[in-house]
Amino acid sequence: MSESIDSLKQIFSDHPAGRAAFRPLRKGTQVGLRIHGDDQEYHFERTPDGASIKEGAGPQTDFDLILGVKAVEAICQTQGESIGDFGVSFFRCLLKSSDEERVQVKLHAGLIALTRNGYLKVLAMGGPKVLGFLSKEGYIGPRGIAKAIRRLRSK
To answer: Which domain holds residue 77?
Structure first.
């Protein structure tokens, strides 16, 4: 398994913010994962016992993340203990242009499915830190959400 994937696994198993972030997700929810430049696919899944990251493509991912090695390092080295701190690190990586520093998203599910599966609850758990960052970048309110979805669908 990739060192970057191992680092992500550790966040979800050992860090309080990582463990809290997956709780609102519906059991069975899946996110595809791949490290930029590596052909091996992985997937995150919300399980009845918590969360796991396994080798192989998930059969029904809501979206896929292609993460640069430096993006994973930035996210895993986040200063702070809250979901908001990690959320801001993640969103900063979404806006980077270098493949090694950014997170790319391929969205498969629509807004209703994302809401039903709990992603907006996780976003809300980021609180004022995430909202402040998103607002500063122009991604607040219905227009901001539509702008974000258009951006993710065009990648």
So the answer is: 3-153
